[in-house]
Amino acid sequence: MSRASDPADEPDSAPRTLTPAERIAPSRHDPLVAAATRPIGGPIGAHAAVGRQWFWSPQRVGLAMAVLALVVCWFGKASCIQQYSDSNGVHQLDWRAGRPFVAMCYSDIVPLYSSEKLDDARTFPYVTSWQEDSQTAENQTRYMEYPVVTGLFQWINAKLAAGWTSVANAGWLPGALPVAIYFNISAFWLALAWLVTVWATGRTTKRRPWDAVLVAISPLVLVHTFTNFDALATAATAAGILAWSRKRPEVAGVLFGLGIATKLYPLLLLGVLFLLCLRAGKLRAWSQTAAFTVLAWLVVNVPFIVAAPRGWWEFFRLNTLRPMDPDSLYNVVSYATGWVGFDGVLQKGQTPTVLNIVVAVLFLACFAGIAYVALTAPRRPRFGQLAFLVVAAFLLTNKVWSPQYSLWLVPLAVLAIPRWRPLLAWMVIDAAVWAPRMFYYLGVDHKGLPAGWFLGGVVIRDLAVVGLCVLVLREIYRPRTDLVRLSGDDDPAGGVLERARDKVTFASFRRSRTEQPVS
C-alpha cells in the first residue's frame, strides 16, 4: 500500500525561476552524450559561461537540428515522387518495379491523393462519396476515412496543389505532377508541425531543455514524419501538455480537443490527468480541461455530424471493420501458432468481433493497472510517466500499429524517462523495422523478405517499448532514481499538480473502509 507524499518533499510554493547554470547539461551527466561531444571539444566545462550566447539557446539548437532531420526525411521520401514519361510521352509517377518498397520511400500521402479523390476538384471531405470495388456482390460506398482535422488538412493541401499547378502552367512557378506538388505542400506543413512538437517539448522540460534534442533528431523522425499525417496530432498534444504545464487548463483542453479531432490518442491523456488530479485533489482543473476538450472537439465535428453524418462516421466504421494489421502482436501470435481465433479469415466488410473485444479488454486491463500505479506509488507519478505508459499500452494492445504511430511516443518518452541511451536504442530499433516491413510488402516473388523477418522486427520493437515501460515503472516506485526529480523538479509537465500535496491514494480508500463504524 502507498503512503501520501511527504509534505516536506512537496511544498505548495511554486519553484523559483531557474538560472542558466541550474539547467541540466546532458554532456556532463550522460556518458553517451559526453562521448558524442568529443569531436566538438567535449562536455561543457564546469566554468563555462552558460546562457551567455545571444542566439544559440538550447531551444534554437534543437529546432535547427530538427530542420536538418526533416530535410533528411524529405530526401528519403523524394524517390517516391519522381516521374517518367511513358511510351505516349505522358508524365507518370515512377512507382515501377516496386520502387516504394525497394527504395523504402513509401508514404501514405502519395496514394491517398487519388484514393481519397483529392485529385478531383469537385469533391469535399465527408460530403462526397464514391464506389470502391469490393469482394462482395455489390460495390461499397466510401467517404473520406480520416478524422475531421486530418481530412480537411488533406483537402486544403489538394486545393493548394491545384492552385500551384495552375500558376506553374502559366510559367510563374516550377511545375511537376500534381501528386508531387501535393506531397511537398503536405510535407511543408507536417515539418512545421514537428517543429512545434520539438518547441513545445523543450519548453515543457524546464530544467532539462536539451532533452528536446532527442525529439528533434530521433531516428523515427528521419523515417516517419512524412509517412502519414501524425505530426499534426503530436503538435497539438505537445502544445496541450505545455499549456497544462503553464497552468492553462482551458488552453490545454482546446489543444487536446483539436488533437483528438486529428487522431484519437490524445483522448488517453485526459484519463491520465484524471488519475493524477484525483490523487492531488485538483479535479476542478481537470474538469476545466475536459470541458474545453469536448467543446473544441464539438466545434470541429458538429458541422459534419449534422451535414454529412454518414461520411463523418466513415472513420469509426472502418476502424471497427479493420482486421489485425501485420504490425500487431495478434498477427505475430497467429503467424507463430497458426491459430486463427481472432475471427479467422474474414470477408471484406465483416466485423472482427472477437478481435475487437480482445483489444478492448486487454487495453482496459492495462489502464486499470496504470490507475493502480497512479494511486499506490509512494510519490505521485509525473504526468509524462503515466502518459507514456498509457499510450504505449494502447499501441501494444491495439490491433493496428501503423509505423508512424511510433511518433506519438517520442515526445512522451522524453518527458517520461530522459535517459538518452535506452531512448535512442528504442528509437533506432523502431525505425529499423521499416526496412523489413518494406521488403515484406515487396513480396517474396519479387525478391522481398518472408513474413518471419518482418514479424521478428515487430517483436523486438515491442520488447523495446515494454523495456522502457519497465524502466518508467521502476522510477515511479523508486523516485530517487528519477533523473527529473533528482535534478530538483517535481513534475515539469504537471502544472497545478507540481509540488501539490496528495489528497487521495489507495491507502486512503482502504483507511476509509476500515474506519466505518460497525452497525
TrEMBL record:
InterPro entries per record: GT87, UCP010361
Membrane topology field: Multi-pass membrane protein
Pfam families: GT87
UniProt region (Disordered), positions on chain: 1-23
Gene Ontology MF term list: hexosyltransferase activity
Record keywords, A-Z: Cell membrane, Membrane, Transferase, Transmembrane, Transmembrane helix
Keyword Transmembrane assigned: yes
Keyword Cytoplasm found: no
GO CC terms: plasma membrane
Listed transmembrane segments: 179-200, 212-245, 251-278, 290-308, 353-377, 383-402, 453-473
Subcellular location per the Swiss-Prot or TrEMBL entry: Cell membrane
Source taxon at top rank: Bacteria
Similarity comment: Belongs to the glycosyltransferase 87 family.
Protein name: Membrane protein
Organism of derivation: Amycolatopsis echigonensis
